[in-house]
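Please check these two lines:
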Amino acid sequence: MNTRRLNLHAPRDTRGFTLLELLVVVSILVMIFGVAIASFNSFNRRSRLQQAALNFKSALRFAQTRAISAEKPSGGCTTFVGMRVAFPGAGSYTIDHECTEGTVGTVETTTLPSGITFVSIPTAFTFQTLPRLTTLVSDQTIRMTNTVETYAIRIATNGDITDMGFQ
């Protein structure tokens, strides 16, 4: 009679993965994707703030150029003073023509993207035609936030616009 002994230490069939191995791999992948998504959301939030600040800076430069070129509105303006930048709330700003009669013509209101606001409502000012200064008494730093990061732009009394970046 032929008796075989069972070899308990013989290699088992290695054609597949065990449930434990699959769970470990899936868990590692879930952690990697979780970190990647969190990093992307942070990058996206930061980029939106930077883009909103750069758009605001561009609008300031455009208003300054219009003031220097003395682009007077079509009617209702005796003497053109400059381009006024005002802040009706924490999430918007307006740019309009300022004349000796007050603000005249079309008011351009811009709303900041969702979730982005000014840290505190800045003081309104005017880019003047002559002597090409602003009506600011002292330099003003305008800060925008997305509740996590802050981005700043400085307006000097002489009209210089400086990008201060993230703070």
